Amino acid sequence: MIRIQAEDFDTSAEIARLTSGRGDVGAVVTFSGLCRDEAGTLAALEIEHYPGMAEAEIGRIAVQACERWPLTGLTAVHRFGRILPGQNIVLVVAASAHRQAAFEAAHFLMDYLKSRAPFWKKEHRIDGSTGEWVEAKESDEEAAARWR
Amino acid sequence: MIRIQAEDFDTSAEIARLTSGRGDVGAVVTFSGLCRDEAGTLAALEIEHYPGMAEAEIGRIAVQACERWPLTGLTAVHRFGRILPGQNIVLVVAASAHRQAAFEAAHFLMDYLKSRAPFWKKEHRIDGSTGEWVEAKESDEEAAARWR
Amino acid sequence: MTRLIYFAWIRERIGKLEEEVELPSDVTTVSDLLQWLRGRGEGYEAALQQPKIIRVAINQEHVEHREPIAGAREIALFPPMTGG
Amino acid sequence: MTRLIYFAWIRERIGKLEEEVELPSDVTTVSDLLQWLRGRGEGYEAALQQPKIIRVAINQEHVEHREPIAGAREIALFPPMTGG
């Protein structure tokens, strides 16, 4: 299940959605991405996204993950709008009978999401200035490439 | 933080313990291990542990993880006693500035915990029989060995 | 008519969220489109001066610059993504 | 006196959770201990007939079978672990 939303998410509730009432799930891996304060200089991140394509693109990545690993469930939630340091930005939950599949699928989904999902972050600084748009990192491209 | 307990745990609360009030955490990976029903044949698992050594051994593995990856926090909770299908057995939470460290540390801790932490599982079957003690898997030894 | 949509600093430099354009018949690939847009004014030139780094989606799917734009209802231009 | 502790099916076969023993002076390594215990009765023999798979901890730390047991206050015997 893919959701793009302004509101926060609850990790326990998202795990329960993939596990409650069933006996075939042995392993659940979650990844939460949080806003860092960049050594106290960041006031907030403003996250812009491409509505429609964001859901579609994460959905395409999720389908690849489901084809590649034997998963019993997969959830991705990405927030947009103003996010303060310490707050959640993104959640991935991967469930499977076995731990290796859950770990790899969650890691894959995050690596791909970083370099393929249409989201952009703008920094607002503590000193009141509107900072720069966050630049894409070479290392994120490389992280995605290693799954090919 | 290491805890061995009979009670269930709440993943969101354990994440909050490692993130609330700080701005240096960018990534949190959790692993939850659940009791599977073995295609409807399992009534419950009974988990025995070695009190004292269980905490000490998981602590030793956790120290290795903290030396190997730049973590901001690391939690492991392992339950003992009677566990029903669909219920939680174990939780690992790894927090870091960056996602690669959080993913690897959580995966490492789980792989080592499987083959080094003094816990044993006995199966109780739906048909009323007391099943066997779960046998250690070669694949768990190999999973731990790949981190060496 | 084709709908063009802009995001992040491309949107800021062009000064528009989106617009409808009638593309000349010799604009057939994504590369052609980026080149054509640069001639539409200072903001466009500022946004697209390094065409190599511009990411493009046609009908909400990523495309390479060499790909044709025939049949596109919606073309989005944006910087490298920084989600997650 | 040394405290011996047993877990899982080793505990079930020996029929004891733990016991205090006076070790003979020629029992100096973990291997010696396992061999000596097998002579203490049927239950011990049933529990320890495949000594290779028995895991041992001295004072709550894993040890290899070749290691000495001098100074051990608490020696635990258990099957391969199945936690997690």
UniProtKB/TrEMBL annotation, chains C, D:
SUPFAM superfamilies assigned to the protein according to its UniProt record, in alphabetical order: MoaD/ThiS
One Pfam family it belongs to: ThiS
NCBIfam families named in the record: moaD (TIGR01682)
Record's protein name: Molybdopterin converting factor subunit 1
Species this protein is from: Oryzicola mucosus
Species classification: Bacteria, Pseudomonadati, Pseudomonadota, Alphaproteobacteria, Hyphomicrobiales
